[in-house]
Amino acid sequence: MAGARSGYGWIGVGVLMLAACNPTYNWREVTLGGTQIKALLPCKPDRAKKTVLLNRMRLEMEMAGCELGAELFVVAHVRLPDEAASAATQARWMEITLNNMRATTHETTAWESRIKGLSRQGIQLAARGRREDGRPLMARAIWLAQGADLYQAVVYGDPLTDEVSETFLAGIESR
Fold it and tell me: How far is CA 167 from the centre of its chain?
């Protein structure tokens, strides 16, 4: 009888190992146009460009993103007409992100980057809010500035796993 139980234990370990190697995350490298940043996305990205109003400036935003299960991954870039507006525009972009997700709590910290040539320290955000339908929503995001280029990488979902969020955010690097 003891041998039968231990056999079931090995089956359980095998099932857990298969679940840990979730084949749905198919990480791939993505770049945004002529920028110097690359990112990792866990699924085939859709791409879009649109004009946005950000900090009283009309800017072209380039985005690459994908949705996998209940998670949405997005990398976005804008080029400012003047590097001097970078800090204020980055702060406004973060404010818009928090408002759009109806954030109830959030925390910002410095983001240690391996990216060369950043104009200043990156900012990392962890937030909780609500979707339009009232369901909970979590976000992890970073903002980076490299001269007149501003970048955002964000993952939305509920729940968000640390492993997936960290893989996504750590995948933001210099080309």
Answer: 10
Let me know if 31 is exposed, middle or buried by CB neighbors in 10 A (0-12, 13-18, 19+): middle
User: What's the CA gap between 124 and 73, in Å, rounded?
Assistant: 15
Cβ–Cβ under 8 Å, residues 42 and 66: yes
Task: Please state which CATH number belongs to domain 24-174.
Answer: 3.40.1000.10
Q: Which residue has the tokens 């928090």?
A: 98
What would the mean pLDDT of 10-28 be, rounded to a whole number? 52
Is 125 in contact with 145 (CB distance < 8 Å)? no
Domain ranges of the chain: 24-174
* pLDDT digit string, tens, across residues 82-99: 999 999 999 999 999 999
